[in-house]
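So, can you check what follows?
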Amino acid sequence: MPVIAPMPAARPARLPNQRDGADDVVAAGTTVDHLTETYRTHYRSLLGLAALLLDDTASCEDVVQEAFIRVHSARKRVRDPEKTLAYLRQTVVNLSRSALRRRILGLKLLSKPMPDMASAEEGAYDQLERDSLIKAMKGLQRRQREVLVLRYFADMTEAQVAETLGISLGSVKAYGSRGIAALRLAMEAPA
């Protein structure tokens, strides 16, 4: 079982209203020795607490070790050594919650399926088809091209196309069917 190594001795902290000539008074706080003893005594119980909150042993050990590291770093803020264990328990609970949040977020991100990506060959083939379609569209009569673009690329109804171009509904149908027939011929013809 690892033991927290004591930090090198530092000058004792002074209280804010103390002068240089007065007796040295150490600020209250948890000592390294007390924290080491707390570690020896309560490590297994804190590990059990983490095990109730998390499901795998490695995460439980990581959480408890991180809790001791955090308490060690903030030991001067834990003024009453009797509250060290309570502070450790609360830190274990908070770190366990954070670990669970990270897991849930990871599962949400992993559960989204990746979109199917086209292969390079498919992309090149699609580009060739688009190029030949654009070339064929340019070969159509102006009205046929207008009707097909509004009907199929702008996704308008035949009535909307008729209103937009100012022509009758029958003309839209006629230009559309002739335009599609001309596109079929142009697309099937060898380039």
